[in-house]
Automatic annotation (TrEMBL), chain B:
NCBIfam families: PRK00451.1. GO terms for molecular function: glycine dehydrogenase (decarboxylating) activity. It comes from Pedobacter petrophilus. The keyword Oxidoreductase applies. This is Aminomethyl-transferring glycine dehydrogenase subunit GcvPA. Pfam families: GDC-P (PF02347). Keywords: Oxidoreductase. GO terms for biological process: nucleoside metabolic process. Residues 18-458 form the Glycine cleavage system P-protein N-terminal domain.
Length: 526, 467
């Protein structure tokens, strides 16, 4: 072991982790005919008498003939089944440094407040007089994000970052249509390091996508941008820093070039953790930006599945095109403004995930300006601290070796050397990590710009000891790869189930997305 | 500028730890690590945000702010129109609030086996309600599900028009129009609206026949419709679509499926809908969630924008695990060449829904369907007895129905203001979105509305009609 590694001693704890093995059946195999999990009071006798034969209330052609083949279970059977499955989910109990997702602590007070009936039992179509508390919180969060970005108006209708990117494309369409230029401006420019949702939503919104490749500095050259920009440019959609931890220092010039050509500039602030309180999108010239409240603002990810919020902010010039309604303040009252003739309308029903906005608001109030600035400092400090330890591990190299300045809150590494020397690749290491009670790392968005990638993001939540343990696990797995590669390649070993057989998930004859499909498949094989 | 004391959410906010880490890296200050950002990009002042609060102060602030809300629990509510009050069993809330899945990323099947199994069970149970073998992981809402499904149909057929019922939630229609792109775009999909029969509220079949053509990629309708109606012509509508080579897309409220036919049984090719009624609270609108389901055929599977969870064999004989299937066609893998786009959705609500469906079982769905029908029809009957009040479409509805107040001489807004003063949220005002229906409101009655609740509404309305 090298000297550098001695500061990351392997504790015996690494050997002791064992994931809970419940051998829990699929719920479709459980239950007993006649069991009930919930009962409902029947309608009162007078109601039943007045209404008469209930089946006559349904047109005969539309009556269900066969009961759905759902399990029949008691309440505790259902409860404990799902509690056992929750125990077989590592969540954030291990150490989750899942890069690009900005794993943060989800404060319990925020959950407690969001689950109060004043929010859970609020109907979005209630009269605004009865929703003043919720509207006040939405408005105050709007003000906070305006201060953090320099934008003039935020809206929370998008249920995630990708939907906010889509909203940006809808706003871009409406803006150019208002100038009579939409037919001409049918191109959106992204970089290969931009999150896939940006090109994907641009394409789904009807735009042609131009993707700029990176040069040796880690970002596309100005010449590449100039060659792509024309009077057909509707917008650019870029993140900065990117997932390699590289910041494009020419971004102001980029925005100027795009504006000069009549396009809009959208800042996908996916990696805002590194730059919050350090810079503001509007001051770099951007027309619009988005913040992921489920990442940077401490609200839960829920299995990368949401409910989440892509908070979308823009300049006063673009604000007329924002989806309706907007929450506006009139003196001491808040109201919903839906009288907005240039609005793109709706991209999702109602006001968005108000409970997520509430949690994000609570996070900003707990952190304050100093806390937020410190979180950014710590995330960058921790990443650079980890880099030293990780680069000392055999088989680990760093992306973009020419970019020598300290990376921001993330660094992308490669295990290509390890793969070549041992046959152990990044997916093998992911699986093996879970044997130590550590959440597998994130590899990379597609396409893989470096081979066998991995991307840890330390964030500000975990302590130095946790970071040291994480590094120690990678170090241990590296040792295993070079001494006993089969151990890694057949992992996990300490989890409820083993890895899937190679290829079964890609073969229509061996995959099944529902139980009924699986049963048919099994019968066909038998 | 650092806080004098460590912040409870940040273990490394202790200055001595930061110094240890700086020493390890070999730099003097954290600021040196930000050298990539040019000076003229940097904000030169601290953010001007409201002061930081301790947990106790935050709690007081939020409790005070939230107390300005008045909820469907404090009041008697008849609001629906896309998100509905149903009973959420306490066990569902306990399950859905577990920190393990609340906080996790999807990670890998290795570390999160329980989460993957839960997701698979959601798709499996919804598949039983729908009589469909292929169910994707949830999308963000009913409207977004409909938008994606219509785009799937356009890709499947290579056609550029879709036929959509006009008796639709205007919010959902607005989403669909966005998904179909403006006319200036090369891939624009034309949305043709189908009238409803003013006497029955059901789809005008003649208008449908005259509108569907060789250009039609899909016919989209809903059961129950936005106006609450169960269209008995569903099989005929599907047949008209099929004869033209178009896909039949049906939007459905799954809580009705204990008593109503699954759309697959009357000819639907693609089914979309909401999962909110399956154990999810209102959350001020944040409870919505959608799904897409079809037959398990390659032509459909190959067009989904969603994530799929598959059960499959592991390397240990006889053991089964789970994995993400068909990811290679998603925008995660293919970027702008993927099937629409994928991203954060409402997967937490799939956990609520799977627990809810398991607690309900076949009998629960049958009973709740019958109770809703009884209560809703009784409420309509009682309201229709009031002078000046008319039930616009008095039969063939599920849990929502249109109440017309034209003959009372009062507007829905006036009536709802007066009801609100009595602690009642009247039905959703339809007068601006459906002017042809006059002063009408969409009333929602579910299993939670008792006879005395209905009598309270009737009494309050009677009082204000007489005035």
């Amino acid at each position: 072991m090298s000297n550098e590694l001695k500061q990351y001693p392997m504790s015996n704890e690494l050997k002791q982790y064992q994931g809970p093995v419940w051998n829990e059946p699929i719920i479709m195999e459980m239950g007993y005919p006649g069991r009930r999990g919930v009962l409902f009071a029947p309608a009162e006798p007078e109601v039943r008498r007045q209404v008469g034969d209930v089946s006559a209330l349904i047109p005969s052609a539309m009556r269900r003939k066969d009961a759905p083949a759902l399990p029949e279970m008691s309440e505790p059977e259902v409860l404990y089944h799902y509690l056992r499955l929750s125990q077989q989910t590592l969540g954030m109990m291990g150490i989750s440094l899942f890069g690009t997702c900005t794993m943060k602590y989800n404060p319990q007070i925020n959950e407690q407040m969001a689950w109060r009936p004043e929010i859970t039992e609020l109907h979005p179509l209630q009269h605004e007089d009865t929703m003043q508390g919720a509207l006040e919180i939405v408005h105050n969060m709007d003000l906070i994000l305006r201060e953090m970005s320099g934008m003039d108006q935020f809206v929370f209708q998008a249920g995630g970052g990708s939907e906010a990117a889509y909203l940006n494309c809808a706003v871009t369409r409406a803006y150019h249509a208002s100038k009579g230029e939409l037919e001409q401006r049918d191109e959106i420019i992204v970089t290969i390091a931009t999150h896939p949702c940006d090109p994907a939503t641009a394409a789904a919104a009807g735009f042609k996508v131009i993707t700029l490749m990176l040069d040796e500095n880690g970002y596309p050259s100005l010449d590449a941008l100039k060659a792509a920009v024309s009077n057909r440019t509707a917008a650019i959609m870029v993140n900065n820093p990117d997932d390699m931890g590289v910041y494009n220092p020419e971004i102001k010039e980029w925005v100027r070039i795009v504006h000069e050509a009549g396009g809009l500039a959208f800042y996908d602030a996916a990696n805002f953790n590194a730059t919050m309180s350090k810079l503001r999108a509007r001051e770099l010239g951007f027309d619009a930006c988005m913040f992921m409240l489920h990442k940077t603002f401490g609200t839960p990810k829920t299995g990368v599945g949401g409910p989440a919020t892509g908070a979308y902010g823009c300049s006063a010039e673009l604000a007329p095109f924002l989806p309706s309604p907007l929450v506006v303040r009139d003196g001491d009252r808040y109201r919903l403004d839906a009288d907005r003739p240039q609005s793109v309308g709706k991209i999702r029903e109602f006001l968005g995930n108000v409970q997520v906005v509430l949690k994000a608001y609570a996070w900003t109030r707990s952190m304050g300006a100093e806390g937020i600035s410190q979180a950014s400092d710590i995330s960058v400090l921790s990443n650079n601290y980890m880099e030293k330890g990780l680069l000392a591990i055999r088989g680990v190299t760093r992306s973009n070796p020419e970019a020598t300045t300290p990376r921001m809150e993330m660094t992308r590494y490669s295990l290509q050397k390890m793969k070549e020397e041992t046959g152990v690749g990044t997916h093998d290491v992911q699986n093996r990590m879970s044997d130590f009670g550590i959440d597998p790392f994130w590899t990379s968005h597609e396409p893989w710009l470096v081979p066998e990638p991995f991307t840890p993001e330390a964030g500000e939540m975990y302590g130095k000891e946790a970071l040291d343990k994480w590094i120690a696990v990678i170090s241990r797995i590296s040792d295993e790869a070079y001494s006993n590669p089969e151990l890694v390649k057949t992992s996990p070993h300490n989890q409820p189930v083993h890895r899937l057989k190679l290829g079964v998930i890609d073969d229509p004859s061996t995959r099944a997305m529902t139980w009924r499909s699986f049963v048919k498949q099994r019968a066909a094989r038998a | 500028m650092k806080p004098a004391i460590a912040h409870p959410y940040m273990a490394n906010s202790v200055p001595a730890i930061q110094q240890e880490m700086l020493d390890s890296i070999g730099v003097k200050t954290i600021d040196e690590l930000f050298v990539q950002i040019p000076k003229d990009h940097r904000l030169t002042r601290p953010l001007d945000l409201p002061p930081a609060l301790s947990e106790r102060e935050l709690r007081r602030h939020l409790v005070e702010t939230l107390s300005k809300n008045s909820t469907t629990e404090d009041n008697l509510s008849f609001l629906g129109a896309g998100i509905w009050q149903h009973h959420v069993p306490a066990a569902v809330d306990e399950i859905v609030r577990r920190n393990e899945w609340l906080t996790s990323v999807y990670g890998e099947p290795s570390s999160d086996h329980g989460l993957y199994q839960t997701w698979f069970e959601f798709c499996s149970q919804l598949g039983e309600l729908l009589n469909f073998d292929l169910v994707g992981m949830p999308v963000r809402s009913w409207g977004t599900a409909a938008g994606h499904a219509l785009r799937m149909a356009a890709r499947l057929t290579g056609r550029t028009e879709v036929v959509v019922v006009s008796a639709i939630d205007p919010e959902r229609l607005s989403i669909i129009r966005n998904y179909c792109e403006p006319p200036q775009m090369a891939d624009h999909i034309t949305v043709r609206l189908i009238n409803y029969n003013p006497a029955t509220g059901l789809i005008d079949l003649e208008h449908l026949r005259a509108t569907v053509s060789g250009q039609t990629a899909a016919v989209y309708f809903e059961v129950p419709s936005y106006l609450g109606l169960i269209d008995h012509q569903a099989a005929e509508i599907a047949a008209i679509a099929r004869a033209a080579g178009a896909e039949t897309i049906v939007g459905v409220d799954p809580i009705s499926l204990g008593v109503l036919s699954a759309p697959s049984d009357y000819g639907a090719d693609i089914v979309v809908g909401t999962i909110q009624p399956l154990g999810v609270h209102l959350h001020a609108g944040g409870g919505v969630g959608g799904f897409i389901a079809t037959r398990d055929e390659p032509r459909y599977a190959g067009e989904y924008p969603t994530l799929f969870i598959s059960i499959a064999e592991t390397i240990k004989p006889g053991e089964y695990g789970f994995g993400r299937a068909l990811l290679q066609q998603s925008s995660y893998d293919l970027r702008d060449k993927g099937k629409d786009w994928i991203g954060h959705s409402v997967y937490l609500w799939s956990i609520a829904a799977t627990a809810y469906m398991a607690m309900m079982g076949p009998q629960g769905f049958a009973e709740i369907g019958e109770i809703i029908l009884q209560r809703a029809h009784h409420a309509a009957h009682r309201l229709g007895e009031l002078e000046g009040v008319r039930i616009t479409f008095p039969s063939g509805f599920f849990k929502e129905f249109v109440v017309n107040f034209d003959d009372t001489g009062k507007s829905v807004a006036e009536i709802n203001d007066a009801l609100r003063a009595e602690g009642i949220f009247g039905g959703h005002d339809l007068s601006s979105d459906f002017p042809e229906l006059g002063q009408s409101a969409l009333y929602c009655v579910t299993e939670i509305h008792t006879q005395s609740d209905i009598e309270r509404l009737v009494g309050a309305l009677q009082k204000m009609i007489i005035l």
